[in-house]
Amino acid sequence: MATQRIIIGISGATGIAYGIKALELLKPTDIEAHLVISKAAQITSAYEVPNMSIQQIAALADKVYSINNIGAAIASGSFKTMGMLIAPCSMRTLAAIAQGLSDNLLTRAADVVLKERRRLVLMARESPLNLAHLKNMETITLMGGVICPPVPALYQHIDSVDDIITHSVARALDLFGIDISSLPRWGEDLHLNTKPE
After folding, report:
1. How many helices (H) and strands (E) does the chain have?
2. What residues make up the domain containing 112?
3. For residues 138 and 153, what is the distance between their CA atoms, to the nearest angstrom?
4. Measured distance CA(146)–CA(78) in Å, rounded
5. Can you tell me the distance from the alpha carbon of 100 to that of 108, in angstroms, rounded to the nearest whole number?
6. In which region does residue 22 sit, left (phi positive, over 0), alpha (psi from -120 to 50) or beta (all else)?
7. Buried-state track 15-49, b at ≥16 Cβ within 10 A, e below 16
8. Half-sphere exposure of residue 148: CA atoms within 13 angstroms, side-chain side
9. Over the stretch 83-121, which tens digit does the pLDDT of each residue have?
10. How many domains in the chain?
């Protein structure tokens, strides 16, 4: 059986915890995580996760690529993957993908995923949105990508920020058919179905 692979991209938007959580959730599975981190994300990480180095984040992945390595495996359509999750996805990265600007490995890998008709999921991080953001999201949707902003599901009786992050990322991985057993599901988990009298 062929190895299943997924590309995880981390861009410079706030929310590097989403990318880290994706890698953590994939670790116990049989799916290879192929990671590319933008230069801006490396800067953001110093602010948002000061107790975790880029090397420690990279260690969560099976394969790691330099943002400048346009000749990497994930830059080719012949390298089979399930698709790509960009978590978080900045508006700069989103715009580059929408316009087909493959100016680094992150945007090139996303372009390849789209051209090969594989799944591209963007955990877009920005608020409020201007018209350029919305039009770029529309363009990516028309190209077959999925815009999946990390919106908290408060009905889950959230106990921590980590619960919110885990749920958002697990739902994004759901879009690839990756089942995260710890993800509460409406209609399957009793505490989510209890209606007030």
Report:
1. 8, 6
2. 5-193
3. 24
4. 22
5. 8
6. alpha
7. bbbbbbbbbebbeeeebbbbbbbbebbbebbeeee
8. 24
9. 999 999 999 999 999 999 999 999 999 999 999 999 999
10. 1
Q: Please list, in sequence order, all residues whose beta carbon lies within 8 angstroms of the beta carbon of residue 14, skipping any fewer than 6 positions away.
A: 44, 48, 88, 125
Residue pointed to by tokens 């994939």 = 26
DSSP secondary structure, 99-145, as one string:
TT---SHHHHHHHHHHHTT-EEEEEE--SS--HHHHHHHHHHHHTT-
Task: Give kind and range of the element (H or E) at residue 9.
Answer: strand 5-10
pLDDT per residue over 112-145, tens digit each? 999 999 999 999 999 999 999 999 999 999 999 9
Return the pLDDT at 131. Answer: 98
CATH number for 89: 3.40.50.1950
The pair of structure tokens assigned to 185 is 């599901």
